Amino acid sequence: MKRKILIVDDEKSMRNMLKILFEKEDFEVNTAENGEVALKLISEKNYDIILSDIRMDKISGMDLLKEIKNQNYFPQVILMTAYASTEMAVEALKLGAADYIIKPFDVNELLHRVHSAIEKRSLFEENLELKTELSKGEGFEGIIGNNPKMIEIYSLIQRISLASATVLIEGESGTGKELIARAIHNNSLRKGKPFISVNCGGLPETLLESELFGYAKGAFTGAYSSKRGLFDVAEGGSLFLDEIGDMTPLMQTKLLRAIQERKFRPVGSTVEHSVDVRLITATNKNLLALVKDGFFREDLYYRVNVIKIEIPPLRERKDDIPLLIKHFAEKYSSLLKKPMPQILKETVEILESYDFPGNVRELENIVERAIALDQRGVFSPELLPGSVKNFSEKEIKEEYSETIPEEGFSFYRAVDDFEVKLIKKALELEKGNMTKAARRLGISYRSLRHLVNTKHREKFKKIKMENV
């Protein structure tokens, strides 16, 4: 889709020259000889770029800029002038101009500034779309979460979706790697084409080769007819290879050839097939460590790791837990044809204190179980598995239990040690954030600051903290 630019200048020769220049750059170009005509055109069409002279009769470029900022959309405005001054440049930028250029200007410099403004416009549109999605409380493309780390991932998905580069998604089991892969596909130009998913760790080598590349009739016993491989089925779309780190060395070699040459040969066939797919891979392992240990081909690693997305485990984005609980409760209440239960605060607090080794998938299973067992319309702690309910209590008992020796001991020192351990644990869970740690401990920020900075100052000197 062509970007739209409006050129506003009272000099006809300048308008004509710029019109020819930007049409060659594949812009949709409109021109206006003054501010009044420009405002009329702006009311009729959404422009990406407005390139305007400052000194014009009646409505100046500065006045035009002020009017544009009152519109419901936000084009990038670049002002031009032959009468430059520092004060005018500062005022223009304060009013929201994207840039400011002095006549006579170098054409290449103008083009560079316009294209930079287009990039800013694209980022603005991207952020606006993200905010719209997130304001619905549904995360992005079915991925639930408003944690800053997740929002960075949403932004990255939008930036990379239009490219065809291979993507490597790394994350623990249950973090939602396939959801991320689908989001990349659904935001790409391939979204009308197939999205095919295969778990490389769930198939033996011979079967995986047949699944990916297909086979010819008679290739092996039982091959009574030819079968298309998933590379063929995904033609024009995206192929998602989950748990790529579990591939055998032979399959790694064959996959590398398919990526490099964009061709493959079905099992038992002499005919090569060309392939046009976007390859998205995922793993719950550290691929670079596997490369160093000789279990994964280095050349294949660099082929699949053109763009990397790292999904944080649920324990690193616990602020998303309430949103996820609500989402899954709504989902399974609807599936089981039950009313949405009341979610008790105590239930959420227990789940927020749990470490979730199974990540989002484990939380989903916990909520599904609770909805299935619930008979009162209340999601209470009693509906949680014992392993979750006892987690915090067990952790404290194991880490902080003390035996009282016959000869006695210092009660107040033991209390202080216990206090320090609790604070350290809370700070560790909250990545050093004092405000969140205080909330987790159930005390005020001021009280926690006193304990850390005054009472136990020596024991917290080497701990990195925020908001101290």
Q: Keywords, please?
A:
five-stranded parallel beta sheet; alpha/beta; 468 residues; Rossmann fold; globular; single chain; Helicase, Ruva Protein, domain 3; 4 domains
Explained architecture:
This protein has 468 residues and is of the alpha/beta class. It folds into four domains: 4-118, Rossmann fold; 148-310, Rossmann fold (3-Layer(aba) Sandwich); 315-394, Helicase, Ruva Protein, domain 3 (Orthogonal Bundle); 402-460, Arc Repressor Mutant, subunit A, CATH 1.10.10. It is built from 20 helices and 16 strands. It has helices at residues 12-24, 35-44, 61-68, 86-94, 107-135, 148-160, 177-186, 205-213, 230-233, 249-261, 287-292, 298-304, 321-335, 345-353, 359-373, 386-389, 391-400, 411-429, 434-441, 445-455, and strands at residues 4-8, 28-32, 49-53, 76-81, 99-102, 167-170, 195-199, 214-215, 227-228, 238-242, 263-264, 273-274, 278-283, 307-310, 342-343, 378-379. Helix 18 crosses helix 19. It is globular, with a radius of gyration of 30 Å.
Radius of gyration: 30 Å
CATH fold-type name of the largest domain: Rossmann fold
CATH superfamily of the largest domain: P-loop containing nucleotide triphosphate hydrolases
Give the overall form: globular
CATH class of the largest domain equals Alpha Beta
Our count of domains comes out at 4
What is the overall number of helices? Answer: 20
Strand content: 5-15%
Average pLDDT reading = 85
Largest sheet: 5 strands, parallel
Supply the CATH architecture of the largest domain. Answer: 3-Layer(aba) Sandwich
Give a count of the beta strands, DSSP E runs of length 2 or more: 16
Residue ranges: pLDDT <50 for 5 or more in a row? none
Percentage of residues assigned to helices: 40-55%
- N-to-C CA distance: 50 Å
Q: Structural class, from secondary structure content? A: alpha/beta
Strand arrangement, largest sheet? Answer: 2-1-3-4-5
